[in-house]
Amino acid sequence: MRLEIKEPADEDENDHDDNHEDESEEEELLEEEQIESLKKYVDELEKKNNENVDKMKRLQADFENYKKRCTKEKEEIISLATERLVIELLLILDDFERALANSKDNDEETSRKGLEMMHKNLKEVLKRQGVSEISTKCTLDPFQHEVVSKVDDESREDSEIVECLQKGYRMGSKVIRPARVIVCRKEKKNEYDENQDNSTE
């Protein structure tokens, strides 16, 4: 019968196991530190995000208040401008009422002078508001003139305005009412008509 003698465990194997355990512990500690670091980073991001949301809300509220303030100021400016215009127009109304009251006792010439004075005053009021009359002694401008009718006038150039039916006005550079006009539109003659004209001559 043969006896087997077991040799004692190698010290290198024991050291290897100890080192493996130490490395595992270090890895676990490292993971925990990384997790903690990530948590702090996430917390900071959430805090900054909340701060940004609060800032956005405040900015939005400020913007809404600014819009309301601008709207109110605009309405006040329009109201004030309208009030001033009405006050000036009331002066013209006073002139009309005086003219009507005096027309019973005055002759036609006096009444005409009164109307001419009121007409002049009204034009001055409009002028102070930046209103000017659109010229119609020119060729057609589609941005300022509205064509009501067309005629073939031999004494006029093509697209020249023949007659103004209703005056147009602009306020500053903006057309607030185009002038309604009749324009000259030359009829194009065909070759047969031209030959007929030449043969007649």
Tell me about this structure.
By secondary structure, this protein is an alpha+beta fold. Helix content is 61%, strand content 14%. It is built from three helices and six strands, in the order ααββββββα. The chain is elongated, with a radius of gyration of 47 Å. The N and C termini lie far apart (157 Å).
Describe, in short, the structure shown.
The protein has 201 residues and is an alpha+beta fold. The protein has three helices and six strands, in the order ααββββββα. The strands form two sheets. It has a three-stranded antiparallel β-sheet with strand order 1-4-5. Strands 2-6-3 form a three-stranded mixed β-sheet, with no helix packed on it.
Keywords:
201 residues; alpha+beta; Hemagglutinin Ectodomain, Chain B; Nucleotide Exchange Factor Grpe, Chain A, domain 2; 2 domains; 3-stranded antiparallel sheet; 3-stranded mixed sheet; elongated
Kindly, what is the distance between the CA atoms of the first and last residues, rounded to a whole number of angstroms?
Answer: 157 Å
Portion of residues in beta strands equals: 5-15%
Number of strands: 6
Overall average pLDDT? 80
Number of helices: 3
Query: Low-confidence runs (pLDDT<50, min 5 residues)?
Result: none
Largest sheet report:
3 strands, antiparallel
Compute the number of structural domains: 2
Work out the helicity level: 55-70%
CATH architectural label of the largest domain: Alpha-Beta Complex
Briefly note the CATH topology name of the largest domain. Hemagglutinin Ectodomain, Chain B
Overall spatial form: elongated
